[in-house]
Every structure is written in C-alpha cells, then in structure tokens.
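Possible regression after last week's pipeline update?

I re-ran a chain I had predicted before the update to compare outputs. Posting the input and the new output here so someone can diff against the archived version. Not blocking, just want to make sure nothing changed silently.
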Amino acid sequence: MRTRIGWLLAAVLMVAACNGGAGTTTTTSSTSTVPIVTSTTQAVTSTTVAPTTTFAVTTTTAASVDVTVQAGEVVGPERFSFAVGEQVSVWVLSDTGDEIHVHGYDLYFETQPGIPTEIALTADVPGIFEVELESSHLPLFELEVTP
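New output (post-update):
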C-alpha cells in the first residue's frame, strides 16, 4: 500500500512542478490535498503536501530574427522593401556590440551581443538606404522604401 501512496504523491508533485507558461516568467508554489487510504475499509484521510521547491520558468521571445551577424558574416535577406507610410520592423541579432546605422534616415540602434535589436521606424522617405554595423562598416541589408 505504501508503494501506491508514494507513486500518487510523486505524481501530484510532478503536476504541481510543471505548472508554468511559455513566454512568461512564472513562479509556482502550491499546496495540494492528496487523499491517502489509511486502511482496507476504504477510509480516506486528506493529507496536505506542500512542495519545498519554487520553480521559475523564464523564456524570452522576440519577434523572429530577420538578420543574424556571426563572426563577421551576415545571414538574411539583402533587401527589405516597404511602402511610404508603413512601419518598418526588422530584427537583427549580432554576436558583437555595435551600432546599427540606417543611412538616409540617420538613425542609430545600439546592439548588444546575443540580444535581438529591433530596427523600428516609419518609412517616410522613399529610396534605397544602406543599413550597416557602424563601427565595423559591415553592411547588413538595404532598406527600400517605395512611393
């Protein structure tokens, strides 16, 4: 009988420990009531089981990365096209810290190694503009804004 109680207790603790959500930071600490059979005459006693561990689940979800820079190599589309008036949102993930310079708009976005950076602006100037890592002079892509 103790084996059944042990398995039941383990199952309840596992369910309590798995109580987290994707895309959030969750701290879980719960108390569960577990019925335990104390005799063969079907008498049931409730025992409170409190987990001794607090579980924290953290996931970081940015929009999907559009351009990746690793060891001086750029992976991603060579050009992003938007119409005048559209909101530009391009995500860059770099393995080095630098500034991303959007020529023509004269905007700068600071990058940190391993952290996605969003290039966000309103496409209000038509043309084709180079976007580069400023300090290393590494072209990332062209931003095309059509009338």
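Follow-up from reviewer: compared with the archived run. The two ends are 77 Å apart (CA to CA). Marking as no regression found.
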